[in-house]
Amino acid sequence: GWLPALQLVRRGSKAVTRHWKAMHFQRQKLMAVTEYLPPRPAVPPRCLPRPRAEVQEEDGYTRLLRRQVEEVFRSSRMVAVCQYNSMPDEDLVMMQHYLRKHNIHVKFVLNEIVRPVLAQSKYRNLLPLFVCRNILLVSPETRAKEMLRVLKGVPQVNLLGACIDDTILSRQGVEHFSQLPSLEVSQGQTVGALALLPSQTSSLLQRGPLLLTALLDEHIRQLRDTGTPGEAPQEQETG
Fold it and tell me: Distance between CA atoms of 124 and 223, rounded to whole angstroms?
């Protein structure tokens, strides 16, 4: 196509038409005089009564959930706090099935429900564990060994801590507790240890009299065999 012989091309930066300019002195005085000043209250705010805080009443469903949490902590000898991550429903059902075989039940709780309950109970030291999505593994018996065996195959559930027989334990504490012998074995070992000391004492006390009796018996036997010195020999009876 046809192009013009002369083309105007503008180069360089654009001209700046707006610059900051200080306000005129007369206008500054006018703005200061006409500035709005809110009126002062007739009574100072510090002299007014404090507004009452509105107390929000809990609904019945929240109170029901909190009573259920209190009952769980009251009736369970073992309460384990675990971090729960998303997992397939089939894996969750299988985990609950294996835990239920050992009389361990899974409880899903909300932090806004369980935290006020723990804050007013003797389990307040468990509060730092409830910072994410948690579940509770509860049992009326101390089945720590079986619980750890099941959780070993479920990486989505991480044990954070537990309360066993009113004693708060960390994860390492639960592992050490699971390695302890059963209560019956511990009681048998304690009874054996307590019975060992009296038996040893009795044997030590009887050793002296027994040794003295054995020596006297041996002395009497020797006297009977050799005869008493200075004693006349007995006459033989004639038939």
Answer: 82
